[in-house]
Amino acid sequence: GGSRLLVIPANLNATVTLESSGIRYDSLEVSWAAADIAMKQRTLQVTNALAASNMGDIYFEGFYSTQSKKDIQAGFDLNLIDITAEKVITLFPAVDTLMPMLRSFAGDLDCELAATSDVDTCMNLILPSIDGVMRISGKELSISGSSKEFQKIAKYLMFRNKKEAYVDKMAVTGMVRDNILEVFPFVLDVDRYILAASGLQHLDESFNYHLSVIRSPLLVKFGINIWGDDFNHIKYGLGRAKYR
Question: Counting beta carbons within 10 angstroms of the beta carbon of residue 208, is it exposed (0 to 12), middle (13 to 18) or buried (19 or more)?
Answer without folding.
Answer: middle
